[in-house]
Hints:
By secondary structure, chain A is mostly helical.
Amino acid sequence: xxxxxxxxxxxxxxxxxxxxxxxxxxxxxxxxxxxxxxxxxxxxxxxxxxxxxxxxxxxxxxxxxxxxxxxxxxxxxxxxxxxxxxxxxxxxxxxxxxxxxxxxxxxxxxxxxxxxxxxxxxxxxxxxxxxxxxxxxxxxxxxxxxxxxxxxxxxxxxxxxxxxxxxxxxxxxxxxxxxxxxxxxxxxxxxxxxxxxxxxxxxxxxxxxxxxxxxxxxxxxxxxxxxxxxxxxxxxxxxxxxxxxxxxxxxxxxxxxxxxxxxxxxxxxxxxxxxxxxxxxxxxxxxxxxxxxxxxxxxxxxxxxxxxxxxxxxxxxxxxxxxxxxxxxxxxxxxxxxxxxxxxxxxxxxxxxxxxxxxxxxxxxxxxxxxxxxxxxxxxxx
Amino acid sequence: xxxxxxxxxxxxxxxxxxxxxxxxxxxxxxxxxxxxxxxxxxxxxxxxxxxxxxxxxxxxxxxxxxxxxxxxxxxxxxxxxxxxxxxxxxxxxxxxxxxxxxxxxxxxxxxxxxxxxxxxxxxxxxxxxxxxxxxxxxxxxxxxxxxxxxxxxxxxxxxxxxxxxxxxxxxxxx
Lengths: 382, 174
C-alpha cells in the first residue's frame, strides 16, 4: 500500500467500509454550552446520530427552598432562576403569591414591573444575540457589542433597585421602592442606546452573508412537532404560531399596551434569531408606552399583612418569560410557607426537544442549534 | 383571555371518550384513574372539543400519605387550559403510567418528578435521575426528606445548617 493518503483512499472499498460511532463529550465546561451543560453526542463521521443532554450541575433545590422559607424570604431565590432576566421571574413568583392570597397590586407598581421586565427581556435577548453570534463564529465582536448594551440596562436597573442581576425588587403587593426622580430621562437615554445597539447587531449579524447562510434552513421545526415536544416561546413562534401569553392571556397591564407578536415562517435557526431580534423592538415599544402612561399613586399595597399566611389555595400562574412560558404552580395549605412551589421553566422544557433536533446535523451545527434554543442554565437546573 | 376548564367539564368529556377513566373531580381539577390515564389523555388530546395538544406543566405533590401528579394541558386554538390530576396511592413503590406516548416532550419533566419524588413512570423511554446524581440518598421534595438518611436529623430542621448532615449509608437502596 502506498504511503500517500490520496492513493490510500483509492483502495478503500466504499461498499464494505464499516465505521464505528464515536461519542464526543461537550461540556460541562465549554464556551458553547452557555453555562454548565453537558451533552454526549454520538457521531458517525461528522454527523450526529444521537444526543443525550446531562443537566443538574447548577441544581440548587429552588422548590425545596421555597417550601422551607416563607413567602417573603423565598422571593430572593427566584430571580436566580433566569439570571439574565431576574425581574421577570420575580414578577411571576409575586403574581403567584398574589393570586393565592388575593392581594391587589397598585397600578403604578404594575407599570413599573412591566417596564423593568421588558428591559430585562431586551437584556436577555441581547445576550442571546451576542452569544449566538459567538457560536456561529463572529467571536468577540457580537459579544462585546451585546455586552455594552447589557451593561447600560444593568446600570439602569441598579439605579432603580440597587442590584444589577438579582434585584429582588418586586414584592407580593407591589415593588419595594419607587422609581428615582430622573428615571424617565435616564430610561429614554438607555432606550436610544438600545435602538442603536439593536441596529448595530442587526447589521453585524443579519447583514453578514456567512451568518445567514450558516443559519438558514438549519434544523427546521414544524408547528405540530414543536407543540408535541412541549416547546414554547420564541422557538414556538418561529414556527409560525403567534402564541404569546402577553396577548393570549393578558396579565398585568398588557391589555393597555400596543405591541405585535413577531412570528417566523419555517422554524429554522435563522427564524429563531429573527424572532428574537424583532421582539426586542416590540419590548422597547412597550417600555416607551409605559413611560408615557405611568400613573401616580402608591407603589406598594398599603394594606399588606406583616406576616403573610395563606389558607388552602391553589394557582397556576404563567407569564411570557424570555425563553417561553414561565409558569409557577403554587399550592398553599395554611401557614406562612408554601406547601408546594413548582417552576415550569421554559428552558428546561425547550431542552427536551434538543436531542431530536440535532440528530442528522453536523457537530458544528449542533452547537448552533443548542445556541438557538437560548437556554439559561439557572432556569434549567433550578 | 384564556379559558380555564373546570374539573367537572373535563370529567364529563373524558368519561364520554373513555368510559371508566374518571375517578372524581373537584372545581379545579379532574382526577383520572391511573390505569386509564394514557388512554384518556390521548383521547383528550385528539378530540376536537378539548384539543389538549400541549402539555405545559407536569409536577408531583406530596401529601404525606399519598402523592398527586398534576398535569396542566392547554389548547392553542381554543386558548384554554385545564388541570388534570392523578393519585399515586402506594407510597412504598409509587408508580404511574408515562404520558410520553401522548406528548413526547413530557420525558424530561417526568424524569424530574422521578428524581425529586421517586415516582416511577412506567413506559418511560429513559427514566433516570436528571438533576441529581445516581445514588443520591432519598427523594428531596418528599415532605419527610429531612428525616431520611443523608438529610438533616429529625427535629433539627427548624435551624438548618446548625448541625452536620448524617453521612449517607454505604449501601444505597433506591
